[in-house]
Amino acid sequence: MVKKRILVIDDERSIRNSLRDILENEGYKVYDAEDGPGGIDMVRRYSFDVVLCDIKMPQMDGTEVLERMNVISNAPVVMISGHGNIEMAVEAIKKGAYDFIEKPLDLNRLLITLRNALDKSRLESETRKLKRKMVKTTEMIGDSPAMVQVKEMILRVAPTDARVLIRGANGTGKELVARWLHEKSKRAEEPFVEVNCAAIPSELIESELFGHEKGSFTSAHKQRKGNFEQANNGTLFLDEIGDMSLAAQAKVLRALEERKITRVGSENDVEVDVRVVAASNKDLQEEISKGNFREDLYHRLSVIIIHVPPLCQRKEDIPLLVKHFLKEHCQTQGVPEMEIEPEAMDELINNPWTGNVRELRNVMERLVILVDKKITATDVKRFAMPLH
Question: Do 115 and 161 fall within a single domain?
Answer without folding.
Answer: no
